[in-house]
Design brief:
527 residues, mainly beta, eleven-stranded mixed beta sheet, seven-stranded mixed beta sheet, 33 strands, 37% strand
Length: 527
């Protein structure tokens, strides 16, 4: 194996910046493998350099690949010096585009691992998780380095590229999860739509996640790897009549994360832009053309680059609750409620964002009323806001409003009653936490609070009616469980108002500490 070294020693000034349509970027000098003989075992090139504190978002390293390459392998490392408290240190992401180029939204994407791996390979017959298997064709490939944060003294890095030669092998057929599961007909189905496996920065296999989803009483889950669709085919064998698996991506930009939820299998959505570039609308349209929903994730998260800065104009839903309930989630909940009070209706979701043990799959989870357990029906239920969010399958909620004239509306629906018409809002909860409370919230704030233990005992059938619009007696039940849902069974109550006095009503269940245990999307009142 031949080993050559390239020293870059470059100083990245502003003159080196290129606006390529994929955020501000810098393209380095090309690494050439010219002269490599196809019969040799392989060749290695090493590139070293230093990224300054004001480095662009993406640094492209062109690699000239000749014919007869069986495998392209890349490894990298970088220095992580100590920095003063409160000062960002070095963090460097990595991915690759093939000979088709690096155009924004183009076809050249072949993989991304962010900062989760220090090496990867691509062959026709196999690839590192997060990378797309396929032929290593001749042409100029581009390794993309993403300096996520850079320490004040800069980010020294080293990239090693290895080409191995020989017969390429055969690319396996990509088989994706089916878009239909057995289900229970029209029913409330539980799901977790934000999960990470070892195909991005998670530590669990798809099989392990599917097993945990079943154990958590989930009916559907969603693949949401960071900035890659490569892992989607590896979920097919873990789907079944009892578990629907939707495909998608978590688009991880420098100014916020968003779920491309339920897109057509094999859909890749680019992430190389910031909010100030006004490009997101294009990719939101791509998500919808691929049959998916646009769902900003953890919009008020405090980690670098995590908070959503693009606005909600393109959102089909918003992830109000992400993982264990924290102050960030409370801010998201209150911001969402304030938007409701202003007349801005965007359905709310909650997901676990589970990465590794001990992150609980299904904690929290979104429960959606769907006509059947299919991709189309679940997405339609989420889009319409016919859903609620709870901390686990032990908790179930129900909410409806009626006007005394036979008109009734459930979660996510509107009761079209005259402004002076009396309205009764009915609610029920099963599995409320010990010592917990139930609240009814309108645009004026919390108008009713009751201790969960003081609510009237009710049957699953009554709660089913409260859930609205023909939901079945298994309302709120997870896969394989019955409608009783949780310790103490269903307990409920009602609140009377006028259609002109409240624009909406929604339900919250809280622990004694105030931590959220569940909440519904609203029932809207009036015309």
């Amino acid at each position: 194996m031949r080993h050559d070294e390239v020293r870059e020693g470059h100083a990245m000034g502003r003159r080196g910046l290129l606006v390529t349509g994929a955020a501000s970027a810098l393209t380095l000098g090309a690494v050439s493998f010219a002269g490599a003989a196809p019969h040799t075992d392989g060749e290695i090139r090493v590139v070293r350099g230093v990224l300054p504190p004001d480095a662009p978002d993406y640094v492209y390293l062109p690699v000239e690949v000749g014919r007869g390459v069986r495998e392209l392998a890349v490894s990298y490392g970088y220095e992580r010096p100590a920095v003063p408290a409160g000062t960002p240190g070095n963090a460097l992401d990595i991915g690759i585009f093939d000979e088709r180029g690096v155009a924004l939204g183009g076809e050249g994407f072949r993989g991304w691992s962010g900062g989760a791996r220090t090496s990867f390979f691509i062959r026709a017959d196999d690839a590192t998780p997060g990378y797309v298997a396929g032929p290593v064709r001749a042409g100029v490939w581009h390794i993309v380095l993403g300096p996520y944060t850079v320490a004040p003294r800069g980010l020294p890095y080293e990239v090693t590229i290895t080409l191995r030669y020989g017969e390429p092998g055969r690319t396996p057929e990509r088989i994706y999860p089916p878009e239909r599961a057995g289900g229970r007909g029209r029913a409330w189905y539980r799901g977790d739509c934000h999960l990470h496996s070892w195909h991005s920065d998670g530590r669990r296999t798809p099989g392990e996640i599917a097993a945990l989803a079943r154990a958590a009483g989930l009916d559907f889950i969603h693949t949401s790897e960071h900035n890659t669709h490569a892992g989607q085919p590896f979920w097919a064998e873990h789907a079944g009549d009892d578990l629907l698996i939707l495909t998608g991506e978590e688009i991880t930009t420098r100014t916020g994360h968003v779920l491309a939820l339920g897109t057509d299998p094999g859909t890749f959505v680019d992430w190389r832009y910031r909010a100030r570039e006004n490009r997101f609308g294009r990719f939101a349209r791509e998500i919808r053309r691929a049959g998916g929903l646009v769902v900003p994730a953890h919009p008020h998260a405090s980690c670098v680059g995590c908070g959503w800065k693009f606005g909600l104009g393109e959102a089909d839903a918003v992830e109000v609750w992400n993982g264990s309930y924290t102050a960030d989630d409370e801010v998201s909940l209150q911001a969402w409620d304030a938007a409701l009070a202003r007349g801005r209706w965007i359905p709310a979701m909650g997901n676990s964002d589970a990465h590794r043990d001990p992150d609980p799959v299904g904690g929290p989870q979104t429960v959606v009323l769907a006509e059947e357990l299919t991709r189309a029906a679940v997405l339609e239920g989420l889009r319409r806001g016919r859903s609620y969010v709870v901390e686990s399958s032990a908790v179930s909620l129900a909410l409806s409003a009626g006007d005394g004239r036979g008109r009734r509306a459930g979660i996510g629906e509107r009761l079209r009653a005259a402004a002076d018409a009396p309205v009764t809002v009915r609610f029920a909860v099963a599995g409320a936490p010990d010592g917990g409370s139930v609240r009814l919230v309108t645009e004026q704030g919390v108008l009713l609070t009751r201790a969960a233990a003081d609510l009237e005992p009710g049957s699953g059938t009554g709660a089913d009616r409260a859930a609205g619009a023909g939901a079945r007696a298994r309302a709120g039940a997870g896969a394989g469980s019955d409608a009783g849902a949780g310790a103490g069974g269903w307990r409920g109550g009602e609140w009377r108002t006028g259609a002109g006095r409240a624009g909406y009503a929604r339900l919250e269940v809280r622990h004694p500490s105030g931590r959220l245990a569940g909440f519904t999307n609203p029932v809207f009142l009036g015309g």
